[in-house]
Each structure stands twice: as structure tokens, then as C-alpha cells.
Write a structure and sequence with these properties.
With 59 residues, this protein is mostly helical. It has one helix at 4-58. The model has no long low-confidence stretch (mean pLDDT 83). It has a domain at 27-59. The radius of gyration is 25 Å and the shape is rod-shaped.
């Protein structure tokens, strides 16, 4: 059922997808690192706030 034309077109589609992914990869890595920094800072701030609340409630 599947002819050689179908296989070559699938290969073309795959190659174009790979090129698109390669172009997208670098911005995604930059965004990932930025998100990681934001998440770590938010986590540190929230942990600090929780710790301060605990110390205030203890005293």
C-alpha cells in the first residue's frame, strides 16, 4: 500500500521538522534557563517568608 513516493515525502517532512526544531532549540534553552532562575528565586523568597512566619509565631 505504501509507495516509495510516500516514504520520500515522509522523509522530507521529517527533515523539515528537524530543521524547525534546530531553529527553535536555542530560544527554548534560553527560556528554560530564565524560567529556572525565576522559579529558584520565587522558591527562595517563599521559603524565607515561611521561615519568618514560623519564627514570628514561635516568639
Amino acid at each position: 500500500m505504501v509507495g516509495p513516493g510516500f516514504i520520500s515525502s515522509m522523509r522530507d517532512i521529517w527533515n523539515s521538522l528537524l530543521t524547525i526544531l534546530n531553529k527553535i532549540r536555542y530560544p527554548i534553552l534560553i527560556i528554560q534557563s530564565m524560567l529556572k532562575n525565576v522559579i529558584t528565586t520565587v522558591a527562595k523568597i517563599s521559603i524565607r517568608n515561611i521561615y519568618q512566619d514560623r519564627t514570628i509565631s514561635i516568639f
